[in-house]
What does this fold into?
Amino acid sequence: MTEDSLAKALGDHDFFRGLQAEQLDDLAAIATKVEMARGDLIFAEGGHADSAYAIVDGSVALELKVSHRGNHIMQTLHSGEMLGWGWLFPPHRWSFSALALDPTTLIRFDAEQLRLLQDEDCALGYVMMKRFAQVMTNRLAATRLQLVDFYGNTH
Amino acid sequence: METLTDPAVIDQMTPIPFRVRSVREELSHTFTLELEPPDGAFEFLPGQFTMVYAFGIGEVPISISSSASQTGTILQTIRRTGAVTHALGRLKSGDYVGIRGPYGTPWPMDDIEGRDLLIIGGGIGLAPLRPAVYHALENRDDYERVVILYGTRTPDDILFEKEQRSWGDRTDLSTLMTVDAADRGWNGAVGVVTRLIGRVGFDPANTTAMVCGPEIMMTVTAERLIEGHSMAPENIYVTMERNMKCAIGVCGHCQFGSKFICTDGAVFPFPEVAGLFDIKGV
It folds into this structure.
């Protein structure tokens, strides 16, 4: 995929929608398109978070290893969502494993270059951080609901 | 004002014996009774409930989970939670239960013809929604897009799973299902049901949502539809459950603010009950 088509794919992605063309070009310059087959491991829990991912198409399971209980799927992510933020903050480790549930298309960013780009272009960095904060808030809210008896007694 | 001793009320309070044709175990604590009315037909509207009497034990309000066009028998899907529902769960084919009803307001199927339907169920809350699904499928041309979103705790807790999968195979219906927790054997979505809403495209101005599940699930879902997807609150319907006793608006047992769930509901436009959810003791 060329940088132009990557920039267009990013512009169509929910997370990046509305960014300036120049910012999309800068992001595309450090991005590659990645295709995953069903069952492929995208990254492993505890591993070095050296990439950021945007899901273009498909579904990804976030798994946590639980002693004596095996792999536990905590959440699934789908087209238009960002996958993981372990790359954003030290120590840059993944808290979960990510597994493709379907044939999945991702846009992968080199984490170090992305952090550098956000530092250099503070306006882009601010927008990205605000959007990640929204993603984190939404996921935290969803996790809280998973903790209560959301589907408890009724009817 | 009517009292429980008025002859008309006594007549409405008298259960009619229905024969149990079959008992089907749905989930570990949930079963469905197939009941035969004594006169061969039982008319009801999607979303209505009956009072089901386990003789000598007590009565419970249970939504009808079958198609309103199939009047020869009715299905009532019940979770074992107390003495009455456990007694009902011990019934066998050929036994009898007492039935009163049908009661309550229905889903607004006639009023929403020509619109998209967004049907959102949580856990056993799919049971009262199923007659609305059947109605939409039996009158498919009366509605535009029909979407069913369903969430439950684990893959072992999926109600009517085989039937939901068959709905998923249809081309005139969109379905998405999610669970709160799963292991690697599950290939579907994991997360609360509200996370599915963003995955289905719908026109909020031309969509009516029908939501059933625990109150927290219904309030969070309605808020998500209103705040996240710009749906008008009056286009969202929920169905409530309280301790219905008389089911005819006399005893006051199911009072919910200024409403009686049994006669003003159990299906309500969301704005009519939204303000009452957070009031302790209501």
